[in-house]
């Protein structure tokens, strides 16, 4: 490995450059596009030299789009707000429900625990529409169609298994002896859970929460099926926006940039947990 | 008096027995999930019914008819073909690319670590939004990729709007989003391999192709299997990228299972056929996921045992 010929060194560098260009270029290009007017975007050949404009972002934030045909209302900021609200609330609910369950699965081998854990995990791999399509009818009967409550409940399908499996792994890694010692000193199980287990698994819980947030934010099909325009997150909203705004390509690009910035920022912040979380701890070690 | 009694820690009247505790702790999570199992069984019932939203009065059990009809239904065979083709092509290419990139980045260095973090970014973008990004880049009138294609002589290259290249285009987006997933899994695997066999091979002057095929690959196999099955399970169910890019079109070029089921439900309002399609997809993923979970548990146990 250490004895690389110069030719090999050059080839490796070349291959890596190609890889970086392929994976980074789309992000770079859409970012540039979001600062361009439609005239610049439509000019041929495309150029990376242009005078940047903030008009696309201004139009999205004020919600007023000036077109030749008149002023068009755009509700994109509302989609952004929905995304934030749905993701944050869903993760909070999943943490409250999932962390105690993860603790139970990690500490107590009770009857049926493995079966239950597997059933929960299998939700991660089932086709989402199989549940969503019948759910549209149940939601109509229950009056949950197009409500935040209904959406947050369904979002548990993504968040809960993720939190359960990652956090369970972290609890299993904590030696149970520390907890026994604390309990023998006369503390209740709840005090042990709160004072010993929770702080020790803290980083794992935070990582699982961040990942669940990213997954909830990036979800598309749940809201596509169950939400109308006023409750839709950015993933669905951006698609509708393309249809409604016609040829306002600059605004579409800036809408995409605003939609992906939160997850990209979180990913960079929490990157060292990503491998473990994405594989549900499959490659731990 | 009464208040001091309730303040004392093990409140005797309201004490959860040790045996019940785990059930109590996991009950809320279970209840939420049972809410999900009900629609699942409803879907099974739908799949055995003649049920169209446009003719609710004609709803009745037709038992296996929805499934039997698939045998002679060219649209179903097209769905099966496109789904398998999509999953097969994406996973194969992503595996080869991901392994290649992981090998390039294997040695720990500042630049390699930086690149591996950068490569995570496409994976963090919502697949539906990634599809929109590529849609802008492949737009016939201003897309940069259409322009680049014209530079190499491919004038009027239509990308996702032509039946000939639609599959290629969505596969490209899938590769862009998910190759980093395989890459980081295999990179983690490569970096966790014991160093002794490689040192011994280097001392003996064993050729590098031999080291790769006889030492690296076999030791990496559990990671490769995990990554492949994980991707296969997602890829055969792909909806977001294809729906955001082409809605299953042009024509029925890209009507994979979930897209076809979605269109059946909402456009042709044929609930019975839609549910039957999803049950077949579920059977495929259930089989795959059982294989996957077994393999994964073995890997997990091994990782724990060695740690």
TrEMBL record, chain A:
Alphabetical UniProt keywords: Sugar transport, Transport
Source species, domain of life: Bacteria
Name of the protein described by the UniProt record: Multiple sugar transport system permease protein
From TrEMBL, chain B:
Single GO BP term: transmembrane transport
InterPro entries: MetI-like, MetI-like_sf, Sugar_ABC_transporter
Keywords: Membrane, Transmembrane, Transmembrane helix, Transport
Topological type in the membrane: Multi-pass membrane protein
Start and end residues of each ABC transmembrane type-1 domain: 80-292
GO cellular component: plasma membrane
Gene3D superfamilies cross-referenced by the UniProt entry: MetI-like (1.10.3720.10)
Similarity-based family: Belongs to the binding-protein-dependent transport system permease family.
PANTHER family: GLUCOSE IMPORT SYSTEM PERMEASE PROTEIN GLCT (PTHR43759:SF1), TREHALOSE TRANSPORT SYSTEM PERMEASE PROTEIN SUGA (PTHR43759)
Protein name: ABC transporter permease
Native source organism of the sequence: Ensifer adhaerens
Lineage: Bacteria, Pseudomonadati, Pseudomonadota, Alphaproteobacteria, Hyphomicrobiales
